[in-house]
Amino acid sequence: MQDAAFFQNWALDIRRNRPDLQISGSPNRTLARSVLEDVSGKLYLLEQYDLRKKSAQTAQNRILQFLQSRQLPGIHPALQTQDGGHGITHDRSFWQLRPGGEADPLPRQTLGSDSRIAGIWSDILLKLKEFSLDPAMPPTAGERFTFTGYIRKLLPFTERRMPDLAGDLKEILQFLNPFLERENTLPLMFAHGDFHPGNILLQNNAVSAVIDWEFLGWKCAGYDLALLLGCLGMDDPDWLDGKAVRTLQDNLFLQNYMPEPVWQDLPDLMAAIRLGWFGEWVDLGDHATAKQEIAYIRFLLGK
Q: What three-state secondary structure class fits 242?
């Protein structure tokens, strides 16, 4: 744990590290992270980033502050330092400290039939859509994500790392090509970017935290919904016609969440998003899961 002078950047008196508490979200976003407790018993999450991420993390935190000001539930921006910064540079890294807390275990075995949680998901998605129209939304860092841009890198990467799956990937891209050609004509919406059940933390039947905003930004309308549905279907394909998904889609459709043409594109959008997961398995050298992902994408495309 860092010394007392380190935490004086936030005017905090940290008492101890809490390695007994599980940290939700992907550990790959940071160099290191830990749960800390101050003298009053409050919990904080300390995150260490590569210094090259300072600008992106600062831009992200400004957006989280905006979302918190607009009362989106479960938003916990990094605490500002005494000099007004969004973190500190120390030991050749960028450090951020945010309020921490505990969450209930995700009921993974019953998610497909849980209309209550589906209602929570739809409420968040509808609020994010509202913020897309707010001119006060702070700017995002970096270039806007596009599938076509990602695929330009994914295909040669797959050919190098898993050449036996490159042919399958090329065939899938042929099926997706009509959708990809329309990508630049699709309406944009502000998106969380990694909106899956594990990133929407709950406690006592309410949202306690929405985490892992690393991929936030302007994406095609329906991106978050398609990512969520794709994750549910990967856990159990039958869930795509289950109670939770029906509740989610009904809620969103009744509130005009996105234009009718985007609803028609939803299966292709789900499949395109799964290419990101495929790329991750290729990067990790997990051939079995990458092959399983190919099969799932074919299933989503009806191929």
A: coil
